[in-house]
Amino acid sequence: MVDDRTNGVSRRKALAIGGSALSIGIAGCASGTPDDEGDGPVAVASFFTFYDFARQVAEGTSITAKNLVPTGLHGHGWEPDPSIQVDIVDADAFVHVGPDFQPWADRAIQTARDDGADTEYVNARKGIDLINLADTVEEDEQVDQGKDPHFWLDPERAKGSVDNIRDGLSRIAPDEEEQLADNAEAVKEELDVLDEEWQTLADAAERDVAFLAAHNAFEYVGQRYGLTLQPLVKNLAADDDVRPTDMQRAQDTIEANDIRNIGAAIFEPRRPAQQLRDETDVEAYYPVTPYAGTTEEWADQGWGYFDIAREINMNTFRKILEAGEPEDGFDEEWRNFE
User: Fold this and answer.
1) Among the four 158, 196, 233, 328, which has the fewest Cβ within 10 Å?
2) Which residues contact 126 (CB under 8 A, 6 or more apart)?
3) How far apart are CA 330 and CA 338, in angstroms?
4) CATH superfamily of 11-192
5) Domain boundaries of the chain, sorted by first residue
6) Are 225 and 174 in contact (CB under 8 A)?
7) What is the rounded CA–CA span in Å between residue 67 and residue 50?
8) Counting runs of H as helices and runs of E as strands, what totals does the chain give?
């Protein structure tokens, strides 16, 4: 998206251009176009989940929420062009996932502070109790000295990020604090409903072990609902043939648990899932996502965190845990998806 507002160069943008010698072009995409931005505050987010929460908390207020991560990309592994700094410096608030999770976001915050920008920095992870990083996840994904950063997959913990976002948006729009608080409560109530739905799914499961042809971003789901989730690879960016040792471990797990259907990450390379299907007893793979991005189709339908949870993740977990049938048409659309 390109910021083409015509009211001159703002103080923040001047800082970004002068202090950081960055180009005007802005990477990423937004929740709307410049025409529908209005004159109110703008909050940009470094990760799809927290953009979506910010959008819902800001509904009915003068605040515009924007997602910096381009449609179709994974918000964790993404490395934007340096021009993204302009968008952050020019925003009233920058919603991020806390230090060490997205190095580019850490660099952007430091640069903006060095430039003297008055952007409000909203740490969605602030004060949230994290679980220890499992040995099935690479150490370079750890935050806070050995903790797993993927807390938002647990609806209960996700409520803490909604509170953090509410507080941050209230600081840039104090006159709208009451509306922001009401919206935040509504989002948290929906998270409670989603939590109950996940628990119902887990209670109905015929299996308690699921296999993911991906790295394990789902440990919070496993621990909250009493499930064992076995990932194939540790590395988020694995795109070559799976190592023989990993494939043997996968085959052993698949045989021991009589697994026929597995989960595969939408925004990660498909090769590991295809290799499992071709070289083990696995018959099909279905989509999972840690709410790290959105597709063109989902964006066109207006899907957010809750829609993706119900339409994608929960349908796949019903399939791979034998917890009932997924929604009509899901199997046809997503079985061994390309």
Assistant:
1) 328
2) 98, 164
3) 14
4) Nitrogenase molybdenum iron protein domain (3.40.50.1980)
5) 11-192, 205-334
6) no
7) 9
8) 13, 8
